[in-house]
Amino acid sequence: MRVRHINPEGLHRSPAFSQAVVVEQPTKTIYIGGQNGVDADGKVVGPTVGEQSRQAFRNLATILESEGATLANIVHWRIATVAGQSFDEGVAAFQEVWNRSDPPPAITVHVVASLGPDFLVEIDAVAVV
Amino acid sequence: MRVRHINPEGLHRSPAFSQAVVVEQPTKTIYIGGQNGVDADGKVVGPTVGEQSRQAFRNLATILESEGATLANIVHWRIATVAGQSFDEGVAAFQEVWNRSDPPPAITVHVVASLGPDFLVEIDAVAVV
Amino acid sequence: MRVRHINPEGLHRSPAFSQAVVVEQPTKTIYIGGQNGVDADGKVVGPTVGEQSRQAFRNLATILESEGATLANIVHWRIATVAGQSFDEGVAAFQEVWNRSDPPPAITVHVVASLGPDFLVEIDAVAVV
Questions:
Q1: Are the C-beta atoms of residues A76 and A124 closer than 8 Å to each other?
Q2: Where is the signal peptide (chains A, B, C) (predicted)?
Q3: How many CB atoms lie within 10 A of CB C2?
Q4: How many beta carbons lie within 10 A of that of residue A2, not counting itself?
Q5: How close C72 gets to chain A, by Cα (Å)?
Q6: What is the DSSP letter of C62?
Q7: Is there a contact between C118 and C49 (Cβ–Cβ < 8 Å)?
Q8: Which of C35, C122, C107 is nearest to C76 (CA)?
């Protein structure tokens, strides 16, 4: 069994945390920390839920791809959005990235008072390969 | 190791997601997506936290039973309720279903601004068999 | 494979729940339920986010130590704080306990409407040893 903290290329690198953790047993489990609409330079990509959701999904995919996985490998996930934002834009971003023929597990969506500064959406996930 | 998305009989079936995911290694882990007070027809069962909590617990139990497990197999879970609702009704629903002689792990309860439309409570969980 | 509910010395003991659950396979996974700023007597330690965060981190560490682990073994975690509180105090408490040379996985922080009575912060976590 190995536990590796990963920071794949294409994601913002922070000295304060790693983006995801990989646990390899017989199975490999990938624990992905809260992803926001932040690009590889650490900048928020835009002021709308749609833009931020699309980027957060890209970040999830980048992490998963770096471990030979895709969004279809997610087994548990949670989305938080900030109160007063458009739910529909988030759903639209989700529908763009998700494969309808291989539906994901049920999502937990919480509408919260706020997240980090300028963040309108945050997604964390567990994937198994 | 196998990963199976499941939609047990007795739960609402959605083309958009599966209700839970089973991961079998030497151990079987069941990741249950956010369950709401929604019946097998996909309808919200009523306008109170008490009714919705009871139904969400029934949905959890249905999923667990379909994999040979019970609520006692839960190892991690989270409950979200919408601000302004009766906390006591949710606690009462919980006390009806939980076995006092086999107490559950500590729950994380978040009171959030909102959940999906008409949802007052949402529960997700991880169980190990 | 064994699943054990644990209530380590130094933590509040509740008849209603266990503080954490240990799953041993080839790997040991520790699922830690929502920890608050509550001492071993079950009392809230103070009215500020700083005090409560420090205590919640101590509780996490106590649970992990009872299983031969430390905060560095955490693979997934979530912090919720109540709206209107000082984010900076929570961050300061975090920086006191965390080892900068061994950064943690990305945290999901949700600012919620409320938690249990008098609770300003709640942390849950999954650790792998």
A1: no
A2: none
A3: 10
A4: 10
A5: 11
A6: H
A7: no
A8: C107
Q: Which CA distances in Å does B61 have to A88, B8, B58? A: 31, 11, 5
Question: Which H/E stretch holds residue C108?
Answer: strand C108-112
Q: Would the CB atoms of C18 and B75 count as touching at under 8 Å? A: no
Beta-carbon neighbour count of residue C4 at 10 Å? 13
CB contact under 8 A, A106 and B19: yes
List, for residues C24-78, the tens digit of each pLDDT value.
Answer: 877 788 999 888 998 888 899 999 999 999 999 999 999 999 889 998 889 888 8
3-state secondary structure of B84: coil
* Listed residue (A87, A85, A30, A83) closest to A60, CA to CA: A30
Tell me which residues of chain B, numbers 18 to 37, contact chain A at a CB-CB cutoff of 8 Å.
Answer: 18-21, 23, 25-26, 31-35
Both tokens assigned to A120: 């309108």
Sequence letter at residue A34: G
- For B2-128, CATH gives 3.30.1330.40
CA distance A47 to B123: 30
How crowded is residue C74: how many other Cβ atoms within 10 Å of its Cβ? 23
Give A25-43 pLDDT, tens digit per residue: 778 889 998 889 988 888 9
The DSSP annotation for C33-54 comes to EEE-SB-TTS-B--SSHHHHHH
Q: Residue B85 gets which letter from DSSP?
A: S
DSSP at A71: G
Structure-token pair, residue A125 = 């996930």
Complex ipTM, two decimals? 0.85
CA distance A28 to chain B (A): 10
**Residue positions counted in chain C:** 129
